[in-house]
UniProtKB/TrEMBL annotation:
<feature type="coiled-coil region">
    <location>
        <begin position="48"/>
        <end position="129"/>
    </location>
</feature>
<dbReference type="InterPro" id="IPR042791">
    <property type="entry name" value="CDK5RAP2"/>
</dbReference>
<dbReference type="GO" id="GO:0008017">
    <property type="term" value="F:microtubule binding"/>
</dbReference>
<feature type="region of interest" description="Disordered">
    <location>
        <begin position="144"/>
        <end position="168"/>
    </location>
</feature>
<dbReference type="GO" id="GO:0097431">
    <property type="term" value="C:mitotic spindle pole"/>
</dbReference>
<dbReference type="GO" id="GO:0001578">
    <property type="term" value="P:microtubule bundle formation"/>
</dbReference>
<dbReference type="GO" id="GO:0043015">
    <property type="term" value="F:gamma-tubulin binding"/>
</dbReference>
<dbReference type="GO" id="GO:0035371">
    <property type="term" value="C:microtubule plus-end"/>
</dbReference>
<feature type="domain" description="Centrosomin N-terminal motif 1">
    <location>
        <begin position="8"/>
        <end position="72"/>
    </location>
</feature>
<dbReference type="GO" id="GO:0007059">
    <property type="term" value="P:chromosome segregation"/>
</dbReference>
<keyword id="KW-0963">Cytoplasm</keyword>
<dbReference type="GO" id="GO:0005737">
    <property type="term" value="C:cytoplasm"/>
</dbReference>
<dbReference type="InterPro" id="IPR012943">
    <property type="entry name" value="Cnn_1N"/>
</dbReference>
<protein>
    <recommendedName>
        <fullName>Centrosomin N-terminal motif 1 domain-containing protein</fullName>
    </recommendedName>
</protein>
<dbReference type="GO" id="GO:0000132">
    <property type="term" value="P:establishment of mitotic spindle orientation"/>
</dbReference>
<dbReference type="GO" id="GO:0007099">
    <property type="term" value="P:centriole replication"/>
</dbReference>
<keyword id="KW-0175">Coiled coil</keyword>
Length: 292
């Protein structure tokens, strides 16, 4: 877009220079025609022919400049439309990508929250299961103690007349019985505690991941707001450039009208010295420039 504006500015400067040169040449030609008309009519006819050739060349040059201006304006309009279409396409792609990422993040957060709830429920279930196992083991121990026959149960109270051998046998029986029933509890409790600890760690990691994904979602939301602001700025800038192109086109039209008026002034100045065909030539030239 900037290259198109520079090209139009360059063409405008060239037209200004050509207009100034044309005015100077017309002025000097008027002086020469006036001098030669006073000297001889043959010089006037010859100068008139030269002026016709000069006018034809200027008309051709003006048409070329007009074609260049039309091409430049067409290029500027096409660039403007292409930029608008490209901007809209990129904005739509960005919006689709952002929507897709938001959906993926929301799905991940929902799944992680569900997994965290399941892990929390599993930890609570394992904790209750470990507690029930502990209570069951203690209950089985009490039951086993109650179901021991009297002849196999260790005598807790020994008579003073009991021998030392009987005391040692009774103590060894008590220790073996206690070791046999507490071994099951010791094998179950570490496993339960370890499982509860693993589930707690997994739950904490899931919650940390959920927090991280929530932070990423907030970052993406801020990025979407920034992109929307950029889109609004680009839209306003594009509208301003369209207005500038319209103003420039009006300026070019005014300039072409001024050039046509200059041709008409030349026609008015030289019309008293021209014959009928010459006047018709200048009239055709003026109306041709006015149409262009």
């Amino acid at each position: 877009m900037s290259n198109g504006y520079r090209t139009l500015s360059q063409h405008l400067n060239d037209l200004k220079k050509e207009n100034f040169s044309l005015k100077l040449r017309i002025y000097f030609l008027e002086e020469r025609i006036q001098q030669k008309y006073e000297e001889s009519s043959e010089d006037v006819y010859r100068t008139n022919i030269e002026l016709k050739v000069e006018v034809e060349s200027l008309k051709k040059e003006l048409q070329e400049k007009q074609e260049l201006l039309d091409k430049a304006l067409t290029t500027a309009e096409s660039l403007t439309s292409d930029n608008e279409a490209e901007r809209q396409r990129r904005c739509q792609e960005r919006q689709q990508e952002i929507d897709h990422m938001q959906q993926v993040l929301e799905t991940k957060i929902q799944l992680l929250q569900e997994e965290a709830q399941l892990a929390r429920g599993e930890a609570e279930r394992m904790a209750s299961l470990a507690g029930s196992h502990s209570h069951a083991s203690l209950a089985s121990l009490d039951t086993a103690m109650e179901e021991v026959p009297e002849d196999e149960s260790p005598p807790h109270i020994l008579s003073p007349s009991s021998s030392s051998k009987d005391r040692c046998r009774t103590r060894s029986y008590d220790l073996g019985f206690i070791f046999k029933n507490t071994k099951l509890i010791r094998s179950i409790l570490p496993f339960s505690f370890r499982l509860i600890e693993d589930l707690t760690k997994e739950l904490l990691s899931k919650e940390a991941l959920v927090s991280e994904l929530c932070g990423e979602k907030k970052t993406l939301t801020l990025r979407v707001e920034e992109l929307e602001e950029q889109v609004q700025e680009l839209s306003s800038s594009l509208l301003q450039k369209d207005k500038d192109v319209e103003v420039f086109w009006v300026f070019i039209s005014i300039f072409l009208v001024n050039v046509s008026i200059e041709f008409f002034h030349v026609f008015l100045k030289y019309s008293p010295m021209m014959t009928g065909p010459q006047c018709l030539f200048w009239e055709d030239l003026f109306f041709l420039n006015k149409r262009t």
